[in-house]
């Protein structure tokens, strides 16, 4: 009966949305012939760009010697693509273009396409000498969460506590999840209480692109950006549409997703609803014995709304409301000869509200301002040990950023951020933190001759915290760009403020903790031409006052500024597209060590040891074949052994492992209806492995799905 009610409910939702779409979209074509005239300029010197390739649906043209081009409006809707060798590609919504719109393109080394649909890149490689990766929306696999997407990228290690949609956390440059900053269009998602983000609560269908800034960049993004930064770009639909996805997988996994994009009164709306649940009692191997994971079920709901409005030719208003609810079991670590896997349950809810205003005052000055409020509720209940824990986090803030081109060679980015954080916790108490910061980035093209471009970047950030005072950190770098090559070097300071748990957790918290501070240096070489792209970067980072929880003499675990840690390594990426996109491949290689160099702990024997749960070597390989409407892909992930304690004992490690995954997609379109069938099989060869000690992962997980897209014309 319960399943029948669920089926009736989902069917009703599908029918209702389809009817709304049919009424709203009004399938038909324009009879009036109109054109939009636009102009493309070099963002650095405002010179007209000739021969920029313009494409929209089946329409293609080029800009003339004055940078101008025309777009016909006869029956055409969608996304305008602007591409020119040596410049960042730009992607814009046709509905946002007005008569005589000016499009600015930044001159840089040819790289992956940046999707600009309601969310511009925070920074380009020309603005900042750093290793920046970009994942486009078309590179997402269906129904993947953020942890699954990031685990395929070079230099990123994702820790998982189980199968399905279990907790996932990120590690960059060999450091913990609290050392990587996760942003939504510039807004921090890391909780003030814990400093981390659970990656499995964010899905690919909600974002247009993902920008990854490797290495410490606290001068521009603030506390927590020691290992790196991940920015999720806001998704805006290019045309009115309805999307419905149904998925079924192993161990009772079911997912339903529907999305509606429409335009009313010149406002673009995108509404998304997602529901997923599973018993998730997956099969595993532990100590060479088969078992089934219990208390690993989950039930998740997510609803989001995005609106975009252009009140004027130079203004864009954006509004977002994002909510998710996550209920799941929390199985305990496996213990030999003990089949009991715990009874703990966790319920987490989060609501994010954001209002953003983009304003271009002239060709040389633009302002970006946004206000946001994020609330998070978490309840943990373990009846086995009579533990009930409640936590509430609230972060509200204001962000102002200005982009100024002072002359054809000098650009300045400035910003002012203010945030107020509050927590109410059954263990950490009631506390508040106020934060105010300002930063400036100077980007200067000091040499530009023929195919050679050389830039210098300098940045500084000052930040005030109500609970421990001021922090000032600098950063500098240099780019050399010659034809298809780019060489960069950079150095700077980074920091991380203690989390409110580390300061006030009872028992054990220490209000006298100092911020972690680090210095880093990085250099790299990029090459990109035609169907080949290559990146290599070297990094070296020293982190002082690192906070580590350890057992004190009283037996209680306490956080203290104990350690000095040094991380160093190399990251390599090779990408290619062959035979007119029939075959594509990507290989990521990382070798890095995170070493404890100094400690205030009495046990000095651990000096020189590696940090736990960080593999020295990781290799990710992805190969895909595209044949007409069919796509077949293979993924291989390899990692070397990982110690499970800072003691680096020979009997306390997780062995090396290679895991293979496979996926297939088939799509077919009939006029305004598109259907996509997809399937995925993880851990093809049923490898026994763990990413966290005593938390075995599934021997194999599969899922199949179907997606319907109803497109407006």
Produce the secondary structure layout.
Blueprint: H1 2-25, E1 35-42, E2 53-56, E3 59-62, E4 68-72, E5 79-83, E6 90-93, E7 101-105, E8 131-136, H2 146-150, E9 156-160, E10 168-172, E11 180-184, E12 187-188, E13 207-214, H3 218-221, E14 228-234, E15 241-249, E16 253-264, E17 267-278, E18 283-286, E19 289-292, E20 298-312, E21 315-329, E22 345-360, E23 365-382, E24 387-407, E25 410-425, E26 429-449, E27 452-465, E28 469-482, E29 485-496, H4 500-504, E30 516-529, E31 532-551, E32 557-578, E33 583-599, E34 617-627, E35 630-639, E36 642-643, E37 653-654, E38 657-670, E39 673-682, E40 701-711
Parallel strand pairs: 1-7, 11-14
Antiparallel strand pairs: 1-4, 2-3, 2-5, 5-6, 8-13, 9-10, 11-12, 13-14, 15-16, 15-40, 16-17, 17-20, 18-19, 20-21, 21-22, 22-23, 23-24, 24-25, 25-26, 26-27, 27-28, 28-29, 29-30, 30-31, 31-32, 32-33, 33-34, 34-35, 35-38, 36-37, 38-39, 39-40
Pick out the low-confidence regions: 1-33, 109-119
Helix content: under 10%
Please identify, by name, the CATH architecture of the largest domain. Answer: Beta Barrel
Give the number of DSSP strands.
Answer: 40
The total count of helices amounts to 4
Structural class: mainly beta
- CATH class membership of the largest domain: Mainly Beta
Radius of gyration: 25 Å
Into how many domains do the coordinates divide?
Answer: 2
Roughly how many Å apart are the termini?
40 Å
Do you know the CATH topology of the largest domain?
A: Maltoporin, Chain A
Query: For this entry, what is the oligomeric state of its chains?
Result: single chain
Largest sheet: 22 strands, antiparallel, barrel
Tell me, rounded to a whole number, the average pLDDT. 86
Query: So, the CATH homologous superfamily of the largest domain?
Result: TonB-dependent receptor, beta-barrel domain
SS strand fraction: over 45%
- Overall geometry comes to globular
């Amino acid at each position: 009966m319960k399943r029948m009610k669920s089926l009736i409910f989902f069917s009703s939702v599908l029918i209702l949305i389809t009817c709304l779409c049919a009424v709203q979209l009004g399938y038909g074509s324009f009879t009036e012939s109109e054109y939009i005239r636009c102009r493309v300029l070099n963002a650095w010197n405002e010179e007209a760009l000739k021969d920029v390739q313009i494409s929209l649906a089946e329409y293609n043209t080029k800009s003339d010697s004055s940078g101008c081009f025309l777009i016909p409006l006869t029956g055409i809707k969608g996304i305008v693509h602007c591409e020119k060798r040596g410049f960042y590609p730009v992607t814009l919504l046709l509905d946002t273009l007005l008569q005589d719109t000016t499009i600015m393109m930044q001159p840089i080394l040819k790289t992956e396409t940046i999707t600009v649909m309601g969310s511009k890149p925070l920074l380009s490689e020309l603005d900042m000498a750093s290793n920046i990766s970009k994942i486009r929306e078309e590179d997402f696999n269906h129904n993947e969460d953020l942890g699954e997407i990031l685990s395929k990228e070079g230099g990123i290690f994702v820790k998982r506590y189980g199968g399905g949609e279990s907790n996932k956390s990120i590690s960059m440059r060999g450091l913990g999840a609290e050392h990587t900053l996760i942003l939504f269009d510039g807004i921090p998602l890391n909780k003030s209480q814990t400093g981390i983000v659970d990656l499995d609560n964010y899905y690919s269908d909600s974002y247009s692109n993902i920008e990854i800034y490797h290495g410490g960049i606290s001068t521009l993004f603030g506390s927590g950006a020691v290992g790196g930064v991940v920015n999720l770009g806001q998704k805006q639909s290019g045309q009115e549409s309805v999307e419905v996805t149904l998925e079924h997988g192993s161990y009772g996994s079911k997912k339903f997703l529907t999305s509606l994009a429409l335009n009313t009164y010149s406002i673009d709306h995108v509404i998304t609803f997602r529901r997923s649940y599973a018993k998730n009692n997956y099969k595993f191997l532990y100590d060479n014995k088969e078992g089934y994971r219990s208390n690993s079920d989950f039930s998740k709901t997510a609803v989001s709304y995005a609106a975009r409005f252009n009140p004027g030719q130079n203004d864009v208003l954006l509004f977002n409301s994002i909510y998710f609810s996550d209920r799941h079991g929390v199985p305990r670590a496996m213990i030999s000869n003990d089949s009991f896997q715990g009874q703990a349950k966790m319920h987490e809810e989060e609501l994010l509200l954001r209002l953003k205003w983009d304003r271009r005052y002239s060709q040389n000055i633009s302002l970006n301002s946004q206000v946001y409020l994020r609330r998070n509720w978490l309840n943990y209940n373990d009846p086995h040990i009579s533990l009930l824990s409640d936590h509430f986090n609230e972060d509200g803030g204001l962000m102002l950023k200005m982009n100024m081109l002072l002359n054809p060679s000098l650009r300045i980015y400035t910003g002012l951020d203010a945030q107020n954080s509050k927590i109410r916790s059954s263990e950490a108490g009631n506390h508040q933190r106020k934060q105010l910061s300002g930063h400036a980035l100077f980007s200067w093209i000091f040499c530009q001759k023929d195919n050679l471009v050389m830039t210098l970047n300098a940045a500084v950030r000052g930040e005030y915290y109500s609970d421990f005072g001021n922090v000032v950190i600098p950063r500098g770098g240099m780019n050399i760009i010659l034809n298809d090559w780019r060489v960069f070097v950079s150095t700077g300071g980074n920091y991380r403020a203690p989390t409110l748990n580390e300061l006030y957790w009872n028992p054990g918290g220490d209000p006298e903790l100092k911020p972690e501070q680090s210095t880093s240096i990085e250099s790299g070489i990029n090459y990109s031409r035609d169907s080949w792209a290559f990146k290599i970067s070297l990094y070296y980072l020293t982190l002082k006052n690192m906070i580590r929880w350890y057992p004190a003499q009283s037996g209680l675990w306490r956080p203290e500024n104990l350690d000095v840690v040094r991380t160093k390594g190399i990251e390599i990426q090779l990408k290619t597209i062959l035979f007119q996109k029939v075959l594509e491949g990507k290989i990521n290689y990382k070798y890095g060590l995170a070493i404890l160099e100094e400690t205030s702990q009495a046990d000095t024997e651990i000096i020189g040891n590696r940090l736990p749960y960080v593999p020295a070597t990781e290799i990710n390989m992805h190969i895909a074949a595209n044949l007409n409407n069919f796509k077949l892909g293979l993924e291989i992930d390899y990692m070397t052994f990982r110690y499970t304690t800072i003691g680096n004992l020979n009997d306390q490690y997780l062995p090396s492992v290679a895991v293979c995954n496979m996926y297939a997609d088939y799509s077919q379109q009939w006029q305004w209806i598109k259907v996509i069938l997809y399937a995925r099989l993880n851990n093809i060869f049923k490898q026994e492995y763990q990413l966290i000690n005593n938390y075995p992962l599934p021997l194999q997980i599969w899922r199949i799905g179907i997606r319907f897209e109803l497109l407006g014309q």
